[in-house]
Amino acid sequence: MGSRRGFWTETLAFHILESLGFEVVSYRHRVVREGVEVAEVDAIARKGGELYAVEVKSGRVSTTDVRQALANAQLVGAKPLIVARGFADKSAEVYARELGVEVVLLPDYFHFVSTEELERLVENALVEALSRLLNVSIDGLNEEELEAIKVIAVSRDAGEASTRLGLDGKGFSQLISSLREKGVLSESGPFEKLRLQARVFLLLKKLLDPL
């Protein structure tokens, strides 16, 4: 989904999914087969031990959208899920139900919110999120903890970070908890969010540490 409108719709959709108990674990997930990109899924989300291939639509869902969501989900071994404003027609709704494609509809009141107002709401949410990300402590870490932050900042996922640090899952979780207690990590959520916080920390440390 391109365009500025698409960006805001995706941001809103992911926020709604998280409020419904989904954890977005990957964004813009590329599907590669035999070295060739064959598809891209807007996001991969997890809920109740199940993985979902998420497609976000700024408009209404058609039967074509349902087929595409199902095909992409099968490629990544996940359940299909679409977030949209509604169905294009009754046939699309029945088709989605028959094929087992879950559809999350944006709250009805968003139909009556102007694009400008929607952008303002999301921008405010982004400002708040950035404020939390920048509210970190850059002091009080030992060399091992600082090295851990550097590893998290360059790793693709928690598994890679754990392997690089020589930790198992429990040890990595304890490390993250310790870094939160020290004010280095302020946000919980998918690894992408931890990685972003680690990068912000390193950037702030480089800018603010005395020369």
What are its keywords?
2 domains, 7 strands, 8 helices, Arc Repressor Mutant, subunit A, alpha/beta, 211 residues, Trna Endonuclease, Chain: A, domain 1, two-stranded parallel ribbon
Helical amount among residues, as a percent range?
Answer: 40-55%
Task: Identify the CATH class of the largest domain.
Answer: Alpha Beta
Give the domain tally.
Answer: 2
SSE string, helices as H and strands as E: HEEEEHEEHEHHHHH
Report the CATH architecture of the largest domain: 3-Layer(aba) Sandwich
State the major sheet: 5 strands, mixed
Q: Which residue ranges are poorly predicted, with pLDDT under 50 across at least 5 consecutive positions?
A: none
Kindly state the number of beta strands: 7
Shape: globular
Strand order of the largest sheet: 1-2-3-5-7
The secondary structure category is alpha/beta
Distance between the termini: 44 Å
The CATH topology of the largest domain is given as Trna Endonuclease, Chain: A, domain 1
Strand content: 15-25%
Instruction: Report the average pLDDT across residues.
Output: 83
Number of helices: 8
Plain-language structure description:
The chain is globular and about 60 Å long. The termini are far apart. The protein folds into two domains: 3-130, Trna Endonuclease, Chain: A, domain 1, CATH 3.40.1350.10; 138-208, Arc Repressor Mutant, subunit A (Orthogonal Bundle). The longest helix is centred in the middle third of the chain and has 20 residues, at 115-134. The protein contains eight helices and seven strands, in the order αββββαββαβααααα. The chain is of the alpha/beta class.
